[in-house]
Amino acid sequence: MSLKSNIVHRYFKKEMADGKILLKVDPVHLTGNELLVSNDGETSKRALAFDEQIWDDLEVDAFEEVSAMEFNLYSSGLL
């Protein structure tokens, strides 16, 4: 089994006045996805590459760690 299939991703969320940002972070390869969800339900997704400072950046920017369920529901269009 490859290392890629054994990774436990971490998920983060930040609420803003115009919507929310949800992040999925691969803590091994420092890659991930960002979902931007506007208050009117529009969703956009993009792939990201992070550096080793991502954990400090998320804390400074007031992201909270959340479960995978919310990210996956928005990602699949169910929310």
Explain what the structure shows.
By secondary structure, this protein is of the alpha+beta class. It has one domain. Helix content is 19%, strand content 42%. A 5-stranded antiparallel β-sheet has the order 4-3-2-1-5, covered by helices on one side. β2 (19-26) and β3 form a beta hairpin. The longest helix has 8 residues, at 68-75. It is globular.
Compile the SSE list and pairings.
Elements: E1 10-16, E2 19-26, E3 31-38, E4 43-49, H1 54-60, E5 64-66, H2 68-75
Antiparallel strand pairs: 1-2, 1-5, 2-3, 3-4
Question: What is the rounded Rg?
Answer: 13 Å
Query: What number of structural domains do the residues give?
Result: 1
Proportion of residues in extended strands: 35-45%
Overall residue-averaged pLDDT value:
92
Order of helices and strands: EEEEHEH
Class per helix and strand makeup:
alpha+beta
Observed structural traits:
single chain; 79 residues; alpha+beta; five-stranded antiparallel sheet; 2 helices; 5 strands; 42% strand; globular
Quick rundown:
The protein has 79 residues and is of the alpha+beta class. It is built from two helices and five strands, in the order E-E-E-E-H-E-H.
